[in-house]
Amino acid sequence: MSLNLQAIEVLNASAAGAFDLTEEQGELTLNMGPHHPSTHGVLRFVLKTDGEVMRKAIPDVGFLHRGIEKIGEKCTFPGFMPYTDRVDYLAAMFCNHVYARAVEKLTGIEAPPRAQYLRVVADEMNRIASHIISIGSMAMDLGATTPCLCGMREREVINNLIEELGGARLTYNYVRIGGVCFDLPARWKEKVLDFLDSFEVQLDQIDRLIGQHALFIERMGGVAAIPGDKAISWGLVGPNLRAAGVDFDLRRDRPYSVYPELEFKVIVGDGRGGAVGDCYDRFVVRVGEMRESARILRQCLRQLPPGATMAKVPKKLKPPVTDIMESLESARGEMNCVLVSSGAESPWRVRFRTGSTNAMQCIEEFSRGLMIADLVALVASLDVIAPEVDR
Amino acid sequence: MTDSSESPARANPSLGPDAMIAEIAADFGDAVLETKPFEAKANKDPWVLVDRAKVHDVLAGLRDSPKYAMNFLQDVTFFDLKGYPGAPTAGPAVGGLRLVYHLWSYPLRHAATLKCDLPRDDAEVRSACDLWNAANWLERELFDLAGIVFRGHPNLRRIMLPDEWEGYPLRKDYVEGAYALGIETTRENPLDLFGEAAVEE
Q1: B71 phi and psi, to 5 degrees?
Q2: What's the DSSP call for residue A24?
Q3: Domain B4-174 adopts which CATH fold?
Q4: Which of B1, B133, B160 sits opposite A233 (nearest CB)?
Q5: For the whole model, what pTM was predicted?
Q6: ipTM metric
Q7: What's the average pLDDT block by block, 10 residues per block, for chain A (391 residues)?
């Protein structure tokens, strides 16, 4: 096994210098995490600092690696669905959705129109819930507790509504291969519309509370600006990419499901906090996206067609031998699901490529020269979720 | 809001799935081993199989040529060909690993999929880190979980698994040990109080 030896050699060589602990004049090596309140899950940074100024922040991930891709090879195609929730537990609906779409692409099953609409409704509800956590924790990490709690109150309503819809509050398992598992409960539509009415007012209030607060703008504006070309090279996706001034949204530019029938605006960062692609732009884009999600929800509920919520799906799914990739716009940007089928009942290979992985790896470059407190702002504004990085 | 990345869209048309593989086969003729056309009905994605020694040249060409302008590396992933029904039956890559690159062009809005077969015992290929920063962690993950060595990678070390882990879990010949990090990997079924599972057998 020449490869093993070779790989182990590389490994040993790199393990010794894994975290280069040599210190230059006046340099200090600091450990941040894995259990730090601002690290959004379990992750660790090794900081090289010169006083308060960072020379480097090296992310160390893998604490939440559960081997989801390996588990997928041992499950049947429908049996893997609950595991997809755990890829990103703050936006589980998107993982459900992308996996269901990938299997449907493999097998040629098509979900009925009502199911497609219900998926988009659930997605957009989930996007609002995820973005609320994101901007709430942004404020929380900078020291403001109130906006986070205001956001949590709104998110609670969404959780209740999704619980009524699918029976679960966090790991939904709502989307099925070929449709969704439940139709709307009675009076649910009205409840969502009532919620949207109050939410839009609340969102304006939260936006006024933090987005227009002089201290918040001071802390976020111009900090860790990521220019568009670098954002593309580092593979940033979703709100982080749009904040960098790249006008791209899968929902509009590579449309899937029922998005071609819906009208919405793509929010792009404009540098109003100081520089295009800074932490404040990433905040602004997320707030704008929540407003657009509310708009999409209203349209979906108005246009919701009648009909079945499940297509005819065979008891045993045995897709043909092929490999495909399917992607959609999750709350953290483009999420790809690669499925390889060997003609058996379980996948040959499952692969999720998520937005947080790339957002995490770019921290090493963009944290250079920041203050330690600004690293917290950078991590929060990139909306990095540890389970999505490690899978 | 002006967007500089949009401007080349007028200079070059975006290529459809079939035109894409035809153009790649024409431009990188000696590197391309096999092409797979798009089958819209069967939902089969098109792809191009590239020679392992030249895969970096093709990737660089796709990124830098204004005709392709592939500035986004969507994904680098792999799957095991050992025992896979669709695997090639001849050549050095029998029973090897198949590396898959997914590329996307933001200015031209088109995609391409490149594949590259690696022999199992010598799974080594040139790193794409110098072309896209995004390749860094994607390749580290493959190094850790699949044992693919990326030559020229600036920081090729483990990312997911503990340092003392043995074997590459995503390969099909990986055997799970009885213990992992000193913890048993199997346990008794807590629901099986009266040995019913044993009775059934």
Answers
A1: -95, 0
A2: -
A3: Beta Polymerase; domain 2 (3.30.460)
A4: B133
A5: 0.86
A6: 0.82
A7: 46 47 70 69 80 84 86 89 88 91 88 91 92 87 83 90 89 89 88 91 87 84 86 90 88 87 87 84 90 91 89 85 88 90 89 88 86 84 84 82
